[in-house]
Amino acid sequence: MESSIPVSAKSERRWRSKPLQTSKPSLVLAFFSCFAWLYVAGRLWQDAENRTLLSNLLKRNTAQRPKFLTVEDKLVVLGCKDLERRIVEAEMELTLAKSRGYLKNRLPENGSSSGKKFLAVIGVYTGFGSHLKRKVFRGSWMPRGDALKKLEERGVVIRFVIGRSANRGDSLDRNIDGENRSTKDFLILEGHEEAQEELPKKVKYFFSTAVQTWDAEFYVKVDDNINLDLEGLIELLEHRRRQDSAYIGCMKSGEVVTEEGKPWYEPEWWKFGDEKSYFRHASGSLVILSKNLARYIDINSASLRSYAHDDISVGSWMMGVQATYIDDNRLCCSSIKQDKVCSLA
């Protein structure tokens, strides 16, 4: 009976049963597709929640933060508070200098260590290797021993001016200390390092230390290659007594040396204008300042700028005050004038 079924009917039955055999893999594939869709949808929903949370936090922080920075806030952010404080302190120091340091008829009464008022304090520059020069000076124009004390009774103090060694307490310092115990004619600048490149700062230390130590009408800086006519200098200073704001010397100016390696080279030559010439100043061989100008240097020593040469440095400091420039040819030590009070040693 089975064999009586036509062949076409058998093949049709086989064709209809084939989809029933492949339905399970399709269901598995559909299940995994739904699972993947649910996973991706969950991640997208979670990311959307995170973005919403972050957006809310950002809005809240933005609302709490000031919309603009005040000047005070900017100073704090930029770290300028300390600079602002220093500017205020500098202004206060300048006010103090104007009221006490150099204005006429308003000078402080700073007594010297001895309580005596002097006509002049003369500082003679010297160095560690200048022992023979000092011996020559003590045997010529510079008094020594009892004669030095008698000169001080007349109102004139003379001291060799020197700093300290870079290696504090070494043989250089010990030799100077020993020489000073014997001669008692040194002014030792404890805060200054004695070196050639530090000479512009030495003049600042000298005037500052001298005005703190002795109460004098004038303070005189002399190089160690200069012979003085001491009586002639005293006579010159006597004539200038009670002359406030006196800046006395052999006044000059000159070309600024811009080429490195040449004598008198000025590293900051570009600060002196297009013509490259120095302002008017007293020659460094011998510089005289009245008491109020020396006091000005003392009060403002921390802020006074030094250049490559000490005479240029002093001249720049005098430009900022009401100094009276006195050009005296007798103080031109290299000239051939007969009545000069100084000469090259």
Give a short overview.
Its EC number is 2.4.1.-. With 345 residues, the protein is an alpha/beta fold. The protein has helices spanning 7-21, 23-64, 71-78, 81-101, 131-138, 146-153, 171-183, 199-213, 230-239, 291-299, 310-318, and strands at 117-125, 156-164, 186-193, 215-222, 226-228, 246-252, 281-290, 324-327, 342-344.
Your description of this structure?
It is a single chain. The protein is an alpha/beta fold and about 350 residues long. It has 2 domains: about 25 residues; about 230 residues, Spore Coat Polysaccharide Biosynthesis Protein SpsA, Chain A (Alpha-Beta Complex), CATH 3.90.550.50. About 45% of the residues lie in helices and about 20% in strands. The chain has 11 helices and 9 strands. The strands form 2 sheets. It has a 7-stranded mixed sheet, with helices on both faces. Helix 8 packs across helix 11. The radius of gyration is 44 Å and the shape is elongated. It starts with 6 loop residues before the first helix and ends with a strand. About 25% of the residues are buried.
Broad shape:
elongated
Mean pLDDT: 80
Task: Give the biggest beta sheet.
Answer: 7 strands, mixed
The secondary structure category is alpha/beta
Number of strands: 9
Oligomer: single chain
Distance between the termini: 154 Å
Topology at a glance:
Layout: H1 7-21, H2 23-64, H3 71-78, H4 81-101, E1 117-125, H5 131-138, H6 146-153, E2 156-164, H7 171-183, E3 186-193, H8 199-213, E4 215-222, E5 226-228, H9 230-239, E6 246-252, E7 281-290, H10 291-299, H11 310-318, E8 324-327, E9 342-344
Parallel strand pairs: 1-2, 1-4, 2-3, 6-8
Antiparallel strand pairs: 4-7, 5-9, 6-7
